Fold this protein.
Amino acid sequence: MKKVIISDATLRDGSHAISHKLTKEHIEIYAKAADAAGIPIVEVGHGNGLGASSLQVGLSLLDDIEMLEIARNNLSQSKLGIHVIPGFATIKRDLVRAFEIGVDVVRVASHCTEADITERHISYSREKGKEVYGVLMMSHMASKELLLDEALKMQTYGAEGIIIMDSAGAYLPYDVTERIAYLVAHLKVPVGFHAHNNLGMSIANSIAAIEAGAKIIDASACGFGAGAGNAQLEVLIAVLGKMGYETGIDLYKALDAADLVEEKIMEVLPSIKGISIVSGLAGVFSGFSKHVMRVSKEYNVDPRDVFFELGKRKVVAGQEDMIVEVALQLSNKQNRGAE
């Protein structure tokens, strides 16, 4: 059978959906359930990754080390993974400590045109014997040719695979097919895909990626993730099984894990709200949704206008301060028009 590796982002991307308030119990119960289901990689931490907890992008309830220790103690067969964005995560302060705890998989991420910043983190992680992937976020903002240029850099640095993220949920299946097939044809390492569901395309896009040659697919239980959520893990493995792909995951136990997430962790089920659709159309990071809604209410402006303006300015994760700037400008314009 054709094999696909599933990387589970429930305890990392899902953190966005509850304002980074994962508790000890959340991590314990889901890590145990994911491990029992045979999920290959379980990613854990702040939504923006190691070292990202801050006032700007959101404070975690637990610090990175505590989250990783809890997960490590509850994973026996699943690998423990982390998401690392240089600038948030440092080698001395963050990676060293994470490796002491026993992290297995390191995914070093950058904006899709800034792979240069990942060299030291990728190289260091490989030197320490970790399984290392390069991740290109907001990949819809680059052509397939530019994505390849950046992916080749990561491959040169030592990345053992390249993941492209549809961070804004902006892709349609043909977009995914074009980019994945191009990368697969020109890279020596496996290619992966991370979907968001803003336009209702996360499962279709994930399947398109696999059919185009992707070997690694990200998903979350119940779709638990930023904005409208990620590809729904239990749906994905069911569909892949029906299509003749092997994931190594026990479907019943994955369904049990999803039930735990719905009952014990999620505040509300992910759904495609109007603001999620606008985020996808505007090509803006899904994790901005809560910030945009809060700031728009404060400045009495339409959050949809804020999203489209952020999209015009090509704002990316880490530029959360631009949300306030845009809302203020729209508010001033609105007030001048009322005079």
